[in-house]
């Protein structure tokens, strides 16, 4: 697990393409909005608003680079424990983001998808999600995967229950397999992340994509999410391209 050494590094998109294989799927834990706001004497909602603004150029840059899937951790199953005012502000920001950005994302060829138990979200958020999914359903350039009311353990429980529902009555000799679980995850049909980026310097995955991150390369930066920009993204991809990915095996 690399951490950001805070050394200046100039990497542009063309040089990344020349250096080698780009990750097909990038997952991001967008952490640090609250601390960013606190450092500036702002309320947490303003930090989340700044975080939404930071996401927009990252989505565009990933699409421009040719990344197939970008999954961002927007709201976890544990985030419900935050103050209700903050939670409500997060849903308002989600609705605002989807309504304002979906036309441009569609024009950029981005398809919006979600993972997590979105059925438990407020109706206004569900309506905005459904509209964004519908409007971008035919886009094929990149998938923007929003993790909403998402928890890795919750996803695994739901995946096994989906499998069981298909098997009823379950024969005694029938056992769940790794492939069966993968086919019933929220991310079924998408490649596993090659690269996980976490902002704010925390060294944990916070119940995010527990199954899918099995062989992901991890990059941690101390940059708070609202300050994360395309150059920071380039640094992470540059670090990924320097890794020797063996998937448990050995190079000859």
UniProtKB/TrEMBL annotation:
Function per UniProt: Catalyzes the condensation of isopentenyl diphosphate (IPP) with allylic pyrophosphates generating different type of terpenoids.
Catalytic residues (positions): 31, 79
Family according to the record: Belongs to the UPP synthase family.
A GO molecular function held by the record: magnesium ion binding
Cofactor(s) for this UniProt protein: Mg(2+)
EC number: 2.5.1.-
EC primary class: transferase
BP GO terms, sorted: polyprenol biosynthetic process
Taxon lineage: Bacteria, Bacillati, Bacillota, Clostridia, Eubacteriales
InterPro entries according to UniProt: UPP_synth-like (IPR001441), UPP_synth-like_CS (IPR018520), UPP_synth-like_sf (IPR036424)
Entry protein name: Isoprenyl transferase
UniProt cross-references to NCBIfam families, sorted A to Z: PRK14830.1 (NF011405), uppS (TIGR00055)
Positions with a binding annotation for substrate: 32-36, 44, 48, 76-78, 80, 82, 198, 204-206
UniProt cross-references to PANTHER family, sorted A to Z: DEHYDRODOLICHYL DIPHOSPHATE SYNTHASE 2, DEHYDRODOLICHYL DIPHOSPHATE SYNTHASE FAMILY MEMBER
